[in-house]
Each structure stands twice: as structure tokens, then as C-alpha cells.
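[#protein-structures] MJ: dropping RNA polymerase subunit sigma-24 here for a structure pass
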Amino acid sequence: MDNRKFILSLKNGNEEAFKKAYLSYYDKLISIAKRFDFTVLTPQDFIQETFLRLYNKRELLNEDVLFDKQLFTICKNIIINHVNRENKVIQLDSLRFEFEEEDTDTTVFEERKEKLYNFINQLPEQQQKIFTLHKLENLSYKEIAELTDLSEKTIANHIYLASKFIRKKIEDH
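AK: finished. C-alpha cells for RNA polymerase subunit sigma-24:
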């Protein structure tokens, strides 16, 4: 089966084509995923998510691009997003630890957190949603764009405006 026919059969939801993709590429994807050092998820988790995303986004496949390149790109993006998210969490945890070491009085932290959420709640609904997805749930612009059907440029603009608003509110208090 040539690349174009194979991709078209995937796009049409052909189970045999998915089975063939899974069996043909599982080992290759595992060897890619094993190159990364994960603290929470296993390489198998990433492969599972890769094939899940392949299935859920199959209509976005391009018949003019080699299937393996598209599949490897999906896997690579999932891994990179996770590694970036994991690094943010580690940085946040170490910052939180340093903060708690310096000031064991958590009421200051809680007051600041409450003010921040109050400022976020003052944002227009769309900005609030996008800011929360990006800053608090660590989703990328691309992931938010997929969830909201907005362009990445629009997402970036909402985050910029929301950040500017919150910074101004913090400066005023």
C-alpha cells in the first residue's frame, strides 16, 4: 500500500490501517521515547498518547507527507510538551520549597494567591479561560488553539492582554 492510500485509509477510520500503523511503528516510537528521562510517565504512555492523538486528529493527516514523518512528529511534540510541563512543575516546586523555607507563614502566600485569582476573575471571560489554561494548567498555545478553535496568534494576544492587566493590578496594590 502506498503512502497516499495508507493515509487516506487512516483518515477514513479504517481499523486495519490503524492496526498496521500500530504494529509497524510501535517499536520505533518506543526507542525514540526511551531516549528521554521521564520522572512520572513511561515511554509506553507516550506511545499510547501518540496513537490516541493520531486517531483523534486523523483528518489533519497530509497525504503528501510521509506517514512515518507525521507520526514521529506527533510523538516528538507530545514528549516535548510533557518535558516542558514537567520542567515547569519542577521549577515551581523548587520555588515553592524555597519560599516555604524563607517564610513559613503561608498566610502571605495564600493572600497573594487569593489576590491573583481575584484579578484573573476580573478578566473578560475568554481571556480568563485562555490565561488559566496557559498559566495555571500549562497548556501550550497550540493545545489551547485546538481546544478553543482560535488561532495561536489570538491566544498569544489574549495572554498578553491578560498578563498586562494582572501586572497593572499587582502594581496598583
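MJ: nice. Helices lie at 3-11, 15-33, 43-56, 67-102, 106-121, 125-136, 141-148, 152-172.
AK: one more thing. The CA atoms of residues 127 and 158 lie 5 Å apart.
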